[in-house]
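$ run holo --ligand "flavin mononucleotide" --emit tokens
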Amino acid sequence: MKTRITELFGIQYPVIQGGMHYVGFAEMAAAVSNAGGLGIITGLTQRTPEDLANEIAKCKSMTDKPFGVNLTFLPGFAAPDYPGYIKAIVEGGVKIVETAGRSPEAYMPALKEAGIKVIHKCTSVRHSLKAERIGCDAVSVDGFECGGHPGEDDIPNMILLPRAAEELKIPFVASGGMGTASQLVAALALGADGINMGTRFIATKEAPVHENVKKALVAATELDTRLVMRPLRNTERVLSNAAVEKIVEIEREKGAATTIEDIAHLVGGVYPKVMQEGEMDAGAWSCGMVAGLIHDIPTCKELIEGIVTEAQAIITQRLSKFAAA
Ligand SMILES: Cc1cc2nc3c(=O)[nH]c(=O)nc-3n(C[C@H](O)[C@H](O)[C@H](O)COP(=O)(O)O)c2cc1C
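-- output --
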């Protein structure tokens, strides 16, 4: 299945695995890339640029296909050593970077000089246009359904994707809520050149996370996510659990006066406990509404090939009927 995205990144299928904290290790990225998609290592899960260099080397030993690195530009006081991480990416020979969070503008010259293709993930048309303007090669348009940070505009993909198609010249992929063949077809129909999936890839055999996490995703329905940290303008969609219900309660009580200190014990340092130890109530962790569409734990190859094959069948069989005179 050829699209502008498969051409841009030199991949077989227009399916990308978005960076995910404590999920996007070499094992995850290599499994997706070996299956013909684009796997992505999560840069900041690696504590230092040296650790990232090692993770890149490990991924290279596991696949000879293209893979990328995610760099998330967080709001916050102590900025990570971004130049150090970029050096590790450049020296590691990685040619694709997924940026997210704040604008990557300050780092574009360094990335472009190294011949790196940049796909920026953002949640609005205006941020997508800014990404295009500063030289990004593609955009991941992340709708309100998404796991993680949907921004503050709350525009679902049924509106956001065709709006992006109206305005953007560079290729974009549909991100947020994606997990099935019919959604890939819909995304293509709405003007996207592929899909980016986060949550769906966690429920795969190769995802290097505790079995409890995978089982929780299969058990969850589309009703089981919550939005937290809205009063802090750092909204995150997470899977509901005891800790998350506590956050929701605190935020309801304190309203706009909620501070990060009020909930820090329920959102800080949670990822290793959930993803590695399987402590499902340890705190808030990102999860998308697509959980309602996750019913199994396939290999990445089964998942990606299943989506693409079924998508082609939907186009040639179900949809072609509607085009008949
Ligand atoms: C557990 C988890 C952790 C994530 N961590 C990050 C991250 O560190 N950086 C980032 O840019 N996006 C992160 N994301 C967002 C994904 O890359 C992707 O944009 C999102 O999951 C798409 O929505 P979906 O979950 O509905 O597929 C995370 C998502 C999940 C589910």
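-- notes --
The chain has a mean pLDDT of 97.
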